[in-house]
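Components:
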Amino acid sequence: MSHNTFGHLFRVTTWGESHGPAIGCVVDGCPPGIRFTQAEIQADLDKRRPGQSRFVTQRREPDQVKILSGVMTDEDGETLITTGTPVSMLIENVDQRSKDYSDIAKRFRPGHADYTYQAKYGLRDYRGGGRSSARETATRVAAGALARKVVPGMVVRGALVAMGEKAIDRANWDWDYVGHADNPFFTPDPASVAVFADYLDGVRKKGSSVGAVIEVVAEGVPAGLGAPVYAKLDQDICANLMSINAVKGVEIGNGFEAARITGEENADEMRMGADGKPVFLSNNSGGVLGGISTGEPIVARFAVKPTSSILTPRKSVDKDGAEVDVMTKGRHDPCVGIRAVPIAEAMLACTIADHYLRHRGQTGKQ
Amino acid sequence: MSHNTFGHLFRVTTWGESHGPAIGCVVDGCPPGIRFTQAEIQADLDKRRPGQSRFVTQRREPDQVKILSGVMTDEDGETLITTGTPVSMLIENVDQRSKDYSDIAKRFRPGHADYTYQAKYGLRDYRGGGRSSARETATRVAAGALARKVVPGMVVRGALVAMGEKAIDRANWDWDYVGHADNPFFTPDPASVAVFADYLDGVRKKGSSVGAVIEVVAEGVPAGLGAPVYAKLDQDICANLMSINAVKGVEIGNGFEAARITGEENADEMRMGADGKPVFLSNNSGGVLGGISTGEPIVARFAVKPTSSILTPRKSVDKDGAEVDVMTKGRHDPCVGIRAVPIAEAMLACTIADHYLRHRGQTGKQ
Amino acid sequence: MSHNTFGHLFRVTTWGESHGPAIGCVVDGCPPGIRFTQAEIQADLDKRRPGQSRFVTQRREPDQVKILSGVMTDEDGETLITTGTPVSMLIENVDQRSKDYSDIAKRFRPGHADYTYQAKYGLRDYRGGGRSSARETATRVAAGALARKVVPGMVVRGALVAMGEKAIDRANWDWDYVGHADNPFFTPDPASVAVFADYLDGVRKKGSSVGAVIEVVAEGVPAGLGAPVYAKLDQDICANLMSINAVKGVEIGNGFEAARITGEENADEMRMGADGKPVFLSNNSGGVLGGISTGEPIVARFAVKPTSSILTPRKSVDKDGAEVDVMTKGRHDPCVGIRAVPIAEAMLACTIADHYLRHRGQTGKQ
Amino acid sequence: MSHNTFGHLFRVTTWGESHGPAIGCVVDGCPPGIRFTQAEIQADLDKRRPGQSRFVTQRREPDQVKILSGVMTDEDGETLITTGTPVSMLIENVDQRSKDYSDIAKRFRPGHADYTYQAKYGLRDYRGGGRSSARETATRVAAGALARKVVPGMVVRGALVAMGEKAIDRANWDWDYVGHADNPFFTPDPASVAVFADYLDGVRKKGSSVGAVIEVVAEGVPAGLGAPVYAKLDQDICANLMSINAVKGVEIGNGFEAARITGEENADEMRMGADGKPVFLSNNSGGVLGGISTGEPIVARFAVKPTSSILTPRKSVDKDGAEVDVMTKGRHDPCVGIRAVPIAEAMLACTIADHYLRHRGQTGKQ
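Structure:
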């Protein structure tokens, strides 16, 4: 029910704004006995961290996670072991530039949540976007790092597959390349880097912005997770991806393409595999049939809109009803979709971890 | 948490399979004092009902709703008034043809949830698809008819905008035409009827099937509903639309198109309206910014896959691990997306009603 | 969250009023593969059913349960097997005497929920107490009959231990006697029957009423169910017992007595049992330490107030603010606590079943 | 659902153990625009803080609360205003004496949750009781300080009414005396202080411990909060009081006494008050009828068991199955019930705040 919590058995509550002292999350329901290190959490956080290339905001945040509860330290002094009680993680806000907000304190920035916050709450913390700040997503990544450990054998990865008018060539897909040091875009297609860089430089220099499409894949997910009606695995995946800032659409498997083809083309056929288990001959379903996982890779994609923080003045109004022009100065990402990749991985991992525990609860299956 | 419930304050629990004696829903949390008639609920149910044209399954179900609790009858003997306690609605299953299920009892139909049910539950009621039967959606429509009454002034409508390779011409959009007696497709474009009819006749005669894209719109939704992070209005709308059978993708506003354009093109500008209230000059956002409603129409679209019940034999396996070919006989819709229109309207109405109550709870705003 | 649902993984939603056509419940989250018969459900319902002695209300309701969904029938044609989808159960209201309600339509009966319903909802279905009718509890008993099957080896029993000023002699405790045909009170003390009968005849003849104390015990509950803080097993047991009509207090183990004694007297000591497992030398804790089950019997007690439906006129007011005297005519129980025994067993069984699934979900332990 | 969260619309999640770096809570769903100061939160925390008399544990914790999110600072630089987003509060653990835990690392202390933690989680953080430490309750008090502001005009107070074999004289009840500097017991009866002091000194010197009964009262609660069946106001109050460490029983209004009296004695009569509103002539119901508030003061009582940390050796077993004797050294309260008073006030305030928002959500009433 909570407005700031997602998940049911693996349950993540996040808190904090970009301009307060800290942000954080509480992960409740984590199974006891999960072993991890702070360095593993930090590694995921570092992937999301801004300031690592000219294509993302230059806000400098070390994003050092502190783990405040819910773990014991193993005898090696490093490995942490979950106790089954809530894991509280906190990240301090460091780079809060003292900035003059007077020009946006009263003005509603087009495309941002300024007007809607005011409409909802009757007041608004105009500094840094409040809960809608991209900083909040760091806490999701921390939670996701823990979620990855919950489902034995699960591997969750993501990649950027399109940016504005440019898209990757799927024939070049190389998962290993996504995290490569020379790849500032999380693209799986080495040939796309130069194209994206050139394109985004143009966007950035104009003070403009552009959207993106991200694909996330979870392998090693056992068949049977999810439920037929209102706890569909794909439904919860889509909901959690939609909860990421600026996401405007989500699809599973072949997604919107499924609307254009026939039943013969769409349904994935089955045969017996070498190991005596059923295998699917294709994966149009994206690993989910009737809301329940098939054992095939879970595949989802989502569209991120271009940030509305741009240099071109735009028509708007202010709190007092005056018509104004708004131009967003300051540090912003020309393509916020890039950093959505590790966030989406985290949301996918959390969703599947939750369903893994729910399935185990109802059926007793491990 | 429940696998068969959606919503938080306006909360709908559904139950039943197509081959049991009845299906039904319990609507909990409905405000007291809502006035409606059984005929209004029935009218919505009749829109979803199969057997009304050659383009939908010929299963004949009267779908007569019985209201079992949660209402008082007004002095006119007809108007029902909610008491604030749970409204239980029941629909009997009438047309359960005694059918020979022996050929599918053990076989997993490709593209259906047969294999995943077996993987999840370890057993499977093979008659009629269990909870995944489209019959379940009748109960959603009943709940949605009540939800429409919760938000004063709200109007929720839906239309089919594409079928397989064919799409409407949005320039012809006419809401009044959607419910027209000569329009078996819920299309808003009169010119599309002949095209769709011809196309779908071809599909039907081949024993094939085809997908569709549906658009739903809610007007009269006050600004301020939703929340910034994990209770985004658009997130919950997408989740609830994704919970409809066979839906593979969902988008809000301009959706996936947003990934392809720039911040200048995408952000909706604002001006003061004649009535002294802010107005948006466009609605790319689909009526939601930062997860909170803007007061503009809420616009969502989703893709429905073609049903996997087709006459062409398809490769599959059975419960015992034998490789088999499966061909689906029986009554099926060549385009299940058509009947998704009233279902989607219901889901949109329920989602917004829930958020209306949640917003009122937290902020006291009406 | 729902006002008419309890439980999280084993989740029960009830609906219906005593003067509508039916009442019912939906049990969601039940594990698949649970085997039971309709006769077993009915047997529990028959225990709660009114009209079986002169000490309970003479309303005659057959309370025949119909199982509408969520089960398959086994080959014996009788055994039902849960499929893992929602089990909907319905009980028709038969004995709705056409009664003249005009004298209570506007008057608030003291001790009843009439005034508070009006204050909450702004309207009130004055026929039969609405949701506060004891009839609602029949649906809990049906759900509880299923819950008993969820935890392997669990046995849940209850008994009346005090009625007004009279109490049983615990030295005479005989579980087998509780369900004896000559025992209209669910008392475990054979010697108490004559005492209670005499006492209650006096109460009944005066048109008065009296309260009771009920004890419920669950044996065979594995150690480890519950959680340390806000999902304490004893907390949820107390909450669910408090949800029964007219309950004013609940205690676990030695309960309020614990406040009067010392730490030496109160804490249960432990030794190793013959089977190599720890055993407790006493059970003051009532089978719960730190919110988690110990493996000892779970023991809870609760106080039921005397019904406020009595023949003596009492001062009250009506909807229009007039001061009135109210006397309750009609069929009523002189001691509503008697029928609370099977209801409390059901609530205890449901609570433990829910925690059994939650524990399994988080820890994987069976 | 969460094991570490309570409330639905006013929702409190707590985290932390006594031996980690900090404890804290996240309050989600708080209405926007609530004005408070950090000093107000601190004042409530100071009431619960140990080390303030010889009758409570000598652990010295400053319990300084830090407010990390969800608020704006008003122009006075001191008043905080809730923004409607989650309020995260953190309290550092300061007095973590480096202690030798080797003697309890493997031994299960009788009456404590040691054995049950091990049974549940398969591992156990033996330092300081983990989540079952009384320190966790500081975070509830912080949340409760905020909850007090949510319901306009509500005043929540508590008092100790019995300690072991000694009880107050209710005729001496003086709310003002409860917080008096010379009153280390939160007793409302000035004459009881000497009695309790003498009694508890005896208990303390023997290394023993004793239980207590606490009463909490909420005045100014509007009629209409709660619901008839599974969201009864008294049910949720009892559940939340039962969630406090060491509580073994809870009652509302006249509680267990109601089981001993007749309907004539028990039901509260009504008349019209001078202000034209109904008044109750007594309050046996404790301010709740049929699960819904009457407008009278809400009155609840609960029993706290004596702490099991005592100097007398007690029989137990250890993790390896050896039979051992356990004696608890270290800092402990001879009567943990004393400090339960501010905790119970907090839980009562949070429960009512939650129901206030839920009622407003469903009915629109303020």
